[in-house]
């Protein structure tokens, strides 16, 4: 995990940390089950307050990106990155709507393909 906090940025440090962890999970640089540094260790490494790291970790956990396993630490969630989870929910909602409308599967796929390839 490589995090850099820009103290001169208008973006608060907890948000910089949160965004960088999300980006690293999305890119695969932080794989599922990767153990994150402790709050105190990461705070010391980054030169920020432990409460700042704790706030970022809480928000990441609320979003399902990381999970805390008590005294064992904080790990990247096995549930995938948030963009893919949102896409899966959107796909499930679409499929449900298509079924209600009685549209055949191959036609529904053609509709999606046409929309995704529009410029």
Automatic annotation (TrEMBL):
Q: Which residues form the HTH gntR-type domain?
A: 11-79
Q: Transcription regulation among the record's keywords? A: yes
Q: Which UniProt keywords apply?
A: DNA-binding, Transcription, Transcription regulation
Give any GO molecular function from the UniProt entry: DNA binding
Q: Tell me the domain of life.
A: Bacteria
Task: Read off the SMART domains from this record.
Answer: HTH_GNTR
Question: What's the protein called, per UniProt?
Answer: DNA-binding transcriptional regulator YhcF (GntR family)
